[in-house]
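Structure (tokenized):
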């Protein structure tokens, strides 16, 4: 069954688009628009073998003119050099303004191909076709595109909304487990901030999800995607409500930075969720019972509280100040009030927390005895 959710961008009716979630959507090309002069499929080498070669064959059978471009997989290729190479190849093949890019892959492909679409001939159309769980529940939705620089992640980019998002759940069958868990954490985050019922669904179906049950994964992707869509519709350019999506990310980003990006984003966010939930508990906002429930589900996914011991809390706190979302040296946190709800005060979702409280939370969870200096 195919689920269709509409993303309506209130500031720009033309930027509204459908998000389709279903099984085998890449085999049934009913969603492909007809009115483009050329199709450019952008993917990475791994996804090319799994899905892009087949997709291109089907598109050619259907009469489309297709160019397939791919680059090595991995975050380190999400850079200006890869983008330049893609653009040069498109220019050489005389791709005009009426070209449609299909961004087929995980978040790396989506961000890079989306940014290429945003700037090629001052902006052409693209469709996001996420193939990782993280891309399905998070990165393909919302129009944030960009590349990394030596100074940091996603520092250069643009808001550029796709014409559609096509999430084919069947692609998750080939996704390695660590990447499945990577995306699962973003879904968990979405449920924690907005949807207690889906949190329970996740709890009750964890084994089936980890075994890759496509029906259950499809339901979970739909629920998580709905949350992201709802938040983006209310705050496309990240000025207020969209901040809630950052729950777990202040500490998560700091862990990524300190580990020199050796830890996967979702895995870092898992520890971020633990610390930030504990902060809310210490501040009397989240109940101890709810903290234990959150700790329990993360432990089930093998994110253990004591793992935090290996990190120097002072380095982590220092790294939070470098996050590009830190404003004027102030470190804001999204604080969980309940499972499915964030704390809001005077219309503000992000709240200042002292370093002392962050340290206390970190040490309380990790069981480390004293502050590392
Ligand atoms: N734009 C946004 O709003 C947003 C939000 C969150 C994250 N991101 C970005 O997303 C990126 C991370 O995305 P990701 O976790 O999807 O990583 P990724 O794109 O690197 O994919 C992870 C790995 O899985 C492989 N892969 C992809 N689909 C597969 C499949 N179906 N079967 C087997 N292997 C497959 C890829 O080749 C890669 O090796 C980061 O660059 C991050 O900054 C963007």
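Design, position by position:
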């Amino acid at each position: 069954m195919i689920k269709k959710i509409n993303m309506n961008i209130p500031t720009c009716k033309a930027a509204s688009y459908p998000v389709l979630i279903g099984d085998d959507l890449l085999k049934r090309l009913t969603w492909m628009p007809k009115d483009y002069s050329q199709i450019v499929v952008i993917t990475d080498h791994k996804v090319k073998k799994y899905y892009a070669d087949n997709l291109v064959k089907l598109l050619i059978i259907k009469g489309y003119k297709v160019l397939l471009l791919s680059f090595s997989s991995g975050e380190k290729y999400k850079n200006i050099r890869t983008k330049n190479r893609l653009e040069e190849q498109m220019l050489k093949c005389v791709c005009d303004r009426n070209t449609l890019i299909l961004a087929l892959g995980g978040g790396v492909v989506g961000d890079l191909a989306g940014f290429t679409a945003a700037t090629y001939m001052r902006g052409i159309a693209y469709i996001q076709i996420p193939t990782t769980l993280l891309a399905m529940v998070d990165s393909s939705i919302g129009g944030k595109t960009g590349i990394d620089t030596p100074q940091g992640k996603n520092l250069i980019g643009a808001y550029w909304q796709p014409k559609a998002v096509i999430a084919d759940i069947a692609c998750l069958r080939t996704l390695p487990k660590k990447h499945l868990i990577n995306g699962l954490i973003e879904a968990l985050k979405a449920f924690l901030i907005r949807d207690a019922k889906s949190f329970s669904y996740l709890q009750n179906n964890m084994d089936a999800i980890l075994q890759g049950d496509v029906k259950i994964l499809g339901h979970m992707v739909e629920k998580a995607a709905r949350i992201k869509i709802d938040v983006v519709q209310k705050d496309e350019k990240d000025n207020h409500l969209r901040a809630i999506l950052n729950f777990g990310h202040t500490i998560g980003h700091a862990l990524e930075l300190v580990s020199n990006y050796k830890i996967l984003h979702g895995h870092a966010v898992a520890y971020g969720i633990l610390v930030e939930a504990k902060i809310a508990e210490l501040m009397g906002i989240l109940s101890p019972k709810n903290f234990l429930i959150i700790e329990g589900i993360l432990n089930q996914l093998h994110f253990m509280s004591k793992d935090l011991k290996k990190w120097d809390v002072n380095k982590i706190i220092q790294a939070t100040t470098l996050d590009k979302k830190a404003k004027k040296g102030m470190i804001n946190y999204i604080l969980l009030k309940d499972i499915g709800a964030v704390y809001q005060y005077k219309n503000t979702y992000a709240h200042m927390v002292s370093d002392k409280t962050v340290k206390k939370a970190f040490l309380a969870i990790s069981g480390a005895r004293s502050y590392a200096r």
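Reviewer-requested clarification: The chain is about 45% helix and 20% strand. The chain has two domains: 3-177, 238-366.
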